[in-house]
Specification:
214 residues
Length: 214
């Protein structure tokens, strides 16, 4: 289930959902950094680290539970950025970097949990989703089934109200703790837990309607 929900923000969703502090002034600053990438100015890497390194590090550490491993993921993500930009020019650089970091952290998480379970906030997130997603090992699902489930989840999240979707993405995409979600949203932890519970109930009903066995 984590691969389908946590791998990609759904189409039609503002990719800044769940990413605090991304305003118009930040977008303007991002354009300057992107111009440096296109000019092949290696200082762009340092600028990215200064501006978004902390946020990306938090995303990776939420998943891996290790500051050292998280830092390696951030460094790898910055190298990926250097290789991808240009020709790519992300609309929201911070969200793009967080997504790259997160994919790298998930790859490392999968490798580390091939023989053991546990570690990081991600495991707790996945346990919370079990009731909505059903039982079974998500890594053993056939590729076509994963694609169908991913598509269904994308459609479900795209139709959710912005507040509920944002909390859901913070928790299950960025693997933020409930306390962190509450702080970012300016809500109590109880309110965040209630929002997540209601969203998961709607998700379960949606998946059942779509023909998935949950």
């Amino acid at each position: 289930m984590e691969r389908m929900i946590l791998e990609k923000i759904p189409p039609g969703t503002d990719e800044r959902d769940g990413m605090p502090g991304v305003g118009e002034e930040r977008i303007a600053e991002d354009e300057e950094i992107l111009d440096r990438f296109f000019a092949r100015d290696e200082g762009a890497i340092g600028a990215c680290r200064d501006k978004y390194g902390g946020r990306c590090r938090a995303v990776a550490e939420n998943i891996l539970g290790s500051p050292e491993d998280a830092e390696e993921c951030v460094s790898d993500a910055l190298l990926r950025a250097w290789g991808a930009i240009p020709p790519e020019r992300p609309r929201f650089l911070g969200a793009w970097l967080a997504a790259v970091t997160r994919r790298l952290a998930l790859d490392r998480y999968r490798a580390e949990t091939a023989e053991k379970r546990g570690g990081g906030e991600l495991r707790l997130c996945l346990d919370e989703l079990a009731d909505a997603a059903g039982d079974g090992d998500p890594w053993s699902v056939e590729e076509d089934a994963r694609e169908r489930l991913r598509d269904a989840l994308n459609r479900f999240l795209a139709e959710e109200k912005p507040g509920a979707r944002r909390i859901f993405l913070r928790r299950y995409w960025y693997a933020c703790s409930v306390a962190e979600c509450a702080r970012r949203e300016g809500k109590s932890e109880a309110a965040v837990k209630m929002s997540l519970s209601r969203t998961k109930k709607r998700l379960r009903a949606f998946l059942e309607k779509e023909g998935f066995s949950v």
